[in-house]
Amino acid sequence: MIAFLTLCYVGLLAVLVWLKILPNKLWTWLSAVAWVVLLFVVLFIPMQWGAPAGSARILTYTVQIIPNVAGPVLEVPVEANRPIKKGDVLFTIDPTTYEAALEATQAQLDFQEVRLQQYEKLASTAAGTRFQVEETAALVKQLTAELEGAEWNLNETTVRAPADGYVTYLALRPGQRVVTLPFQPAMTFVDTSREIVGVQIQQIHQRYIKRGQEVEMAFKTQPGRIYTGKVKAIIQVTHESQAVISGTVPTAQPIQAEPFFVRVQLDDREAAKDLPAGTAGTAAIYTKSAAMTHIIRKVMIRMESYMNYIIPWL
User: Fold this and answer.
1) Tens digit of pLDDT for each residue in 93-123?
2) CB burial class (10 A; 0-12, 13-18, 19+) of residue 163?
3) Are 207 and 57 in contact (CB under 8 A)?
4) Do 130 and 75 meet the contact criterion of CB atoms below 8 Å apart?
5) Three-class DSSP category at 84
6) Do 80 and 169 contact (CB within 8 A), yes or no?
7) CB within 10 Å: which end of the chain, N or C, has fewer?
8) Which residues, listed in sequence order, are joined to residue 93 by a DSSP beta bridge?
């Protein structure tokens, strides 16, 4: 941007010299140096905190699908990378053993309920004891709880989507046995029910950033398009700030000023559907400081948006 404005200034000097409004002298052309210094001091240096910019990325939640019950898989009706809704079936587990456990518990519960009625009748005529009644009543409560657990286990043989999203890298097939171990998930589910836009801002530039400030973003997957949003949260913590519990003294390392993350909420929620998770770009935050520099940042981010057509790595 500085080079562009300097070229514009030099072009203006050339026109004025050609029209003989300015003399063709050395000091006339050296004024371009003063112009560059003026741009730095008045516009570009204040712009760093008045309208800070940083790398942006679309983030998402991934859920490791681990079933609550184990068993062989009967059916996998979902397809990889195909959108599904919350509650749709991901896969089903053979329910035979869980149905048998439910029926056995139900039979025991029915029997004990009959016995409880009989003991209560005997106790009312002094032919039985209260101990028998209380013992059987406690057993009925225990079996009722076990029945609820058996019903829950049976329901968990059908694994459903926890939110709107899709399954990716789907390798699960009927006949495979799934387990409830946390280190062996059955599949990976990508939650698309809400978008997360993270922006990295250098620490020296974040002091003027506040919630609710306007944001403009240009993403690689949508060249030539500007997305608008607002600052939702400032995550004032970095990786280096973590104190990891261990039995050793921490090793001294060079301290680096890691950027802070700013979470942005898009104004158009539907626009997030055009931005796949992992989409990279640039975001500019317009603070209440150095407002005269905002126009320069707006021009720069629009220039970058159109440069995304031809430059993939910037």
Assistant:
1) 999 999 999 999 999 999 988 988 888 888 7
2) middle
3) no
4) no
5) strand
6) yes
7) C
8) 73
Domain segments of the chain: what residues? 1-49, 62-190
Structure tokens at 223: 């060249």
User: How many angstroms from the chain centroid is the CA of residue 98?
Assistant: 36
Whole-number pLDDT of residue 21: 78
pLDDT digits (tens, 9 = 90+) for 218-229: 999 889 899 999
Contacts of 108 (CB under 8 A, 6+ apart): 143
Per-residue tokens: 87: 């509650």
How many C-beta atoms surround the C-beta of residue 139 within 10 A? Answer: 17
Q: Which CATH architecture is the domain 62-190 placed in?
A: Beta Barrel (2.40)
Coil vs helix vs strand at 263:
strand
Size (the chain), residues: 314
DSSP sequence for 182-215: TTS-SEEEEEEEEEEEEEEE-GGGGGG--TT-EE
Region 27-54: mean pLDDT is: 76
How far is 89 from 32, CA to CA, in rounded Å? 68
CB burial of residue 56 (10 Å; 0-12, 13-18, 19+) = buried
pLDDT at 9 (0 to 100) = 65
